[in-house]
Design a protein that fits this description.
- By secondary structure, this protein is α/β, with parallel strands linked by helices.
- The protein has nine helices and five strands; from the N terminus they run βαββαβαβαααααα.
- Residues 139-204 form the HTH luxR-type domain.
Length: 206
């Protein structure tokens, strides 16, 4: 998804003033805001859209997942009430970043979306514990199930590093890092990097 063109984003929120505020922050950070909606109405134009920012709700989450299916658009959810169930549902659905309204600032919004556009996840540290409480249906993979390289990459993911940072730290190419991450997700039966970090931490792999 990394490209020379400015990243494109669609903003969905039930409050117009919140939408306009996020749009202004992102436009100042060189994002192109394609449009806005409330509860995904009007329906976002997904073609060539890098990021869909939407306000979390059960039905909205399901609609957002269906909309971006096969398009490669990344999902970023804003959350008014952070609960274990909400975090579990979003991570399991493949949401790349979760931004609580109580801590949402111009900096956290821009930083979170830039991380997502770079192919990473943006999950607040205090949410990781919620994920560890989630007993997923993933494999119970012990430390021997991942090789040294895979565990090294996982540790750096847990530290919040992006693909480029991991590549520089381990002296790998970015392609190699992406391949390792793919292998880790497959072995742990996870859809997202956030899930993989949570499962690996719970299982004692990292």
């Amino acid at each position: 998804m990394i490209s020379s063109r400015p990243p494109t984003v669609w903003i969905d929120d039930s409050h117009a003033i919140v939408r306009r505020g996020m749009a202004a922050c992102l436009q100042q950070a060189d994002f192109v805001v394609r449009g806005e909606s409330a509860a995904l109405s009007p329906e976002p134009a997904i073609n060539d859209l890098d990021v869909l920012v939407f306000e979390y709700a059960g039905p909205t989450l399901r609609r957002a997942v269906r909309l971006v299916d096969t398009h490669g658009t990344r999902l970023v959810a804003t959350v008014r009430e952070v609960t274990e169930q909400a975090v579990r549902e979003m991570v399991d659905a493949g949401v790349s970043a979760i931004l609580p309204h109580r801590t949402l600032t111009a900096d956290t919004l821009v930083t979170g979306l830039r991380s997502v556009v770079a192919g990473n996840v943006a999950l607040p540290a205090d949410m990781l514990s919620r994920l560890l409480l989630h007993v997923t249906q993933t494999s119970h993979l012990g430390p021997a199930g991942l090789n040294t390289r895979e565990r090294s990459v996982l540790r750096l993911l847990a530290d919040g590093m992006d693909t480029r940072g991991i590549a520089e730290d381990l002296c790998f190419s970015e392609r190699t890092v992406k391949n390792v991450v793919h292998d880790v997700l497959t072995k742990l039966n996870c859809r997202t990097r956030a899930q993989a970090v949570a499962v690996a931490t719970r299982e004692g792999v990292i």
